[in-house]
Amino acid sequence: MLMPPFELHHPTSVAEAVDLASSLMEQGLGFDWVAGGTDVLPNYKWRINPQPHVISLAAIEEAHSLLPTSIGCMVRLDALTADNGVHPLLVEAAAKVASSLIRKSATVGGNLCLDTRCFWYNQGEDWRRSIDWCHKADCGTGADCRVIPNQNTLCVATYQGDLAPNFMVLGASVHLIGPQGERQLPLSEFYALDGMKKNVLEPGEFLLKVTLPEEAFSRVGSYQKLRVRDSWDFPEAGVAASWIPSQPESLKIASTALESIPRLHNEEVSKTLASNGMEPVAMAAAIHKAVKPVNNTALPPRYRRSMVKTLTKRALRALQQGE
Ligand SMILES: Cc1cc2nc3c(=O)[nH]c(=O)nc-3n(C[C@H](O)[C@H](O)[C@H](O)COP(=O)(O)OP(=O)(O)OC[C@H]3O[C@@H](n4cnc5c(N)ncnc54)[C@H](O)[C@@H]3O)c2cc1C
Ligand code: SF4
Predict the structure, then answer these.
(1) Could you tell which of 1, 6, 38, 100 is best to mutate to test the pocket of ligand 1, judged by most ligand atoms within 8 Å of the CB?
(2) Ligand 2 in contact with 120 (CB < 6 A)?
(3) Which residue, 176, 194, 173, 187, is CA-closest to 254?
(4) 234 to 10, 169, 228, 320: CA distances (angstroms)
(5) How many domains does the chain have?
(6) Residue 272 belongs to a domain with what CATH number?
(7) pLDDT of the residue at 140
């Protein structure tokens, strides 16, 4: 498959990247950010929403900085190791992303900003043409959504990144920068429940780094992932949990690959703690009730949803055994 033509830009500072984005927007020219390119470039080869301009974040030194509580967007997943002082839960989660080869290019920023996925969308151009396209990549035809037809207001493509729920249960924040300046928000507020919009990034804005509170290092965690092939597949369901040992009230649980956003389950956790304490079966039932996967990934939604119970129980038992 041939790459469609695009102009590649290599800004060497955050300011230059933001200026470049502003200038392209003023000229009405579409662009994408690229980090490791392991997701966006295969999509381009499949002619999935390619843009005429691509801005690489690779030459921005600040974006590569790696400290235990501050991880730049260009940090590669294979650098998330204990030797680099990274939280053990992030080490565990990063090691479960894709394959070792992909992890050498894939980045933290690209993982957190990963495009949502759907089996009607992540296909070659000929395949998509044969079904007359779909709403998210409709090639100007006004095609319908194939998962929830007769409505073209919402795309329910699934977010299938592994790192986000793990960062969420450690209380991470994201630092965004763009033409309107810099802002910081909890990662749990970064995602938008819309498979096309995906997150709250404004036009021209990018994710510069993710930070953790010091308190994160008092937490132990566990990440449980369901996938078809352990060697490299995307999660079909994922549950992350963390707590400060022997303090049930500190428990946090987040899920991924079950809807268009990764979700932090604060409400379900606090209600269940109040009624049943940190009891794995009751907690698993509450998380199971909160998620509603749709039929657009490799495994059937009913199976993925039922596995949420198993994954949650495994995660909580791992926390309790590590006490
Ligand atoms: C075979 C295969 C298996 C995979 N398995 C998994 C898996 O198991 N789990 C998983 O989580 N992922 C998986 N992936 C997806 C992907 O490789 C990873 O999510 C990776 O971390 C993406 O990072 P990247 O730097 O390559 O992103 P890119 O491809 O460069 O970018 C991804 C998206 O994020 C945007 N973006 C990148 N950086 C930024 C930024 N700093 N600010 C704003 N937007 C940004 C891009 O515009 C693009 O839309 C898989 C991919 C392949 C090809
Ligand atoms: S959920 Fe609907 S609009 Fe979104 S990618 Fe799938 S088929 Fe297309």
Answers:
(1) 38
(2) yes
(3) 187
(4) 29, 20, 8, 27
(5) 1
(6) 3.30.390.50
(7) 85
Q: In which domain, by residue range, is 235 found? A: 220-321
pLDDT-derived band of residue 323, with 50, 70 and 90 as boundaries? low
Domain contains 314: yes
Q: Does residue 88 sit within a domain?
A: no
Distance CA 255, CA 168 (A): 9
Task: Tell me how far apart the alpha carbons of residues 128 and 33 are, in angstroms, rounded to a whole number.
Answer: 24
User: pTM, whole model, 2 decimals?
Assistant: 0.98
267 within some domain: yes
pLDDT tens sequence across 178-204? 999 999 999 999 999 999 999 999 999
pLDDT in tens, 37-82: 999 999 999 999 999 999 999 999 999 999 999 999 999 999 999 9
What is the distance in A from the centroid of ligand 1 to the CA of 14? Answer: 20
Ligand 1: which residues within 6 Å by Cβ?
Answer: 32-40, 42, 57, 73, 77, 97-98, 102, 105-107, 109-111, 113-115, 161-162, 201, 206-207, 232-234
